[in-house]
Write a structure and sequence with these properties.
Helix content is 55%, strand content 14%. By secondary structure, the protein is of the alpha/beta class. The chain folds into 2 domains: 1-27 and 105-194, Rossmann fold (3-Layer(aba) Sandwich), CATH 3.40.50.300; 33-100, Rossmann fold. The chain has a 5-stranded parallel beta sheet with strand order 2-5-1-6-7, sandwiched between helices. It has a two-stranded antiparallel ribbon with strand order 3-4. The protein starts with a strand and ends with a helix.
């Protein structure tokens, strides 16, 4: 089975691409959702977050996302700190999840594959590319937040063009080119690559 990464900048459309892969029968591990779940369910990680961000990091056992967000987007050291705490657990959880899959390939969707230095964990990486203005507008609508906060998040991610050059496949999500046929084309290539990888009798 091939281990495939799917990445892209904030608002690029990773989730939409993931849903199309899922319709094609490919399981997708969403690192962002898994990270939020692990912050609440892993007692060691939870204690580390309380230690560094105080008891206010949780309300009734649930992560106080607004409280954490207000801290990390005003303090880059705190942003790096939370990433350094959460990433190892999410990476390990993703590896364990991947081992259980039985399809020709499975996908881990994560925004920070290259930034976290985990690209070597994957056989292939798919990038989702979208113009910055579109990514900005989508993110503002989706997160119901302001332009400055999204721009700050973008600054903490690798440059989109650099990231896409490092990917094996690139999906253009620019509202000019249909996304579904692109996903199907990549899906077919990955199925063929998976078959080629299998030992022959």
């Amino acid at each position: 089975m091939l281990n495939v990464g799917l990445t892209g900048g904030i608002g690029s459309g990773k989730t939409i691409a993931s849903k199309i892969f899922e319709v094609l029968g490919i399981p997708v591990y969403q690192a962002d959702i898994a990270a939020k779940s692990l912050m609440e369910s892993n007692p060691i990680l939870k204690n580390q977050l309380i230690e560094h961000f105080s008891e206010n990091a949780f309300v009734d056992g649930k992560l106080n996302r607004k409280y954490i967000a207000d801290i990390i987007f005003n303090d880059k050291e705190k942003l790096h700190l939370i990433n350094s705490l959460v990433h190892p657990y999410t990476i390990q959880d993703g590896i364990e999840w991947m081992k259980k899959q039985t399809t020709p390939y499975a996908i881990k969707e994560a925004a920070l594959i290259f930034e976290s230095g985990t690209q070597s964990n994957f056989d292939y990486i798919i990038g989702v590319s979208s113009p910055q203005s579109m990514r900005l507008n989508r993110s503002i609508k989706r997160d119901n937040t302001n332009r400055e906060l999204i721009l700050e998040k973008m600054e903490n991610q690798m440059d989109e063009q650099v990231k896409m050059k490092l990917c094996d496949f690139v999906l253009q999500n620019d509202e000019k080119t249909l996304l579904t046929p692109q996903v199907i084309a990549v899906h077919e290539k990955l199925i063929a690559l998976s078959k080629a990888q299998q030992p022959h009798d």
